[in-house]
């Protein structure tokens, strides 16, 4: 009995010793490092240094052979005062060039652009429309263009001269209206084509006569048709026949468009 007790005590002591040895050998258990949590609000990083502005100046399109300017951006032209505005068009630039050589045409353009004129300005405008010197200059410029070849600058000037005559004829109470009609008829019928004239200038001159014929027809259609007879036997005979035919087609198209518009919007 005593032997069994001693054996049991020995076994218990042995088990405790084994456990103690294992604990001693295993050491402190390793603990995986806890990852640092990212802060919710990070400290603001230093802003990058500001970039230097890059100024890109696109090259201007060179003038074409016909002298046309394209202006996608503001342009400084020689002899122009200051920089042009954002909405300045190539036509505006060309008109400025025309006005420098023809101040009266610049005055006409000013009056025409200002619809609501006071009594003093309106009277000045009417005097300008009757200006004998300007009328004669207009006749000479339209009949005898000085450009060697057709150009955008020349076309702007030509069209403004035609507009000057148009405004004068549109003034119903113009006391010189009859003489102005005579002047327009003279420009149409006078043969100012020359042998040494560049073909582009000949086309431009013919276009001027056609526009004036249509303008004349709007004010005196019977007299416009009579011009065809006056041109018979001259170099302008076929040209005037073409003017009359194309004008009739123009009037027919205008009547057709007017009729379509009235049918689309019937009067109640």
Question: Which descriptors would you attach to this protein?
Answer:
0% strand, mainly alpha, 60% helix, 268 residues, 10 helices
Structure overview:
With 268 residues, the chain is mainly alpha-helical. The protein has helices at residues 2-26, 90-101, 103-113, 119-129, 132-143, 152-170, 177-189, 199-219, 221-230, 237-264. α3 packs across α4.
Shape: globular
Give the overall pLDDT as a whole number.
78
Instruction: Evaluate the radius of gyration.
Output: 46 Å
Distance between the termini: 135 Å
Helix content: 55-70%
Low-confidence blocks of residues: 27-43, 50-84
How many beta-strand elements?
A: 0
**Beta-strand share of residues:** under 5%
Tally of helical segments: 10
Estimated structural class: mainly alpha
What is the multimeric organization of the chains shown? single chain
Name the helix and strand elements from N-terminus to C-terminus, one letter apiece.
HHHHHHHHHH
Largest sheet: none
Q: How would you briefly describe this protein structure?
A:
With 268 residues, the protein is mainly alpha-helical.
Task: Please give the structural blueprint.
Elements: H1 2-26, H2 90-101, H3 103-113, H4 119-129, H5 132-143, H6 152-170, H7 177-189, H8 199-219, H9 221-230, H10 237-264
Helix pairs in contact: 2-3, 2-6, 3-4, 5-6, 5-7, 6-8, 7-8, 8-9, 8-10, 9-10
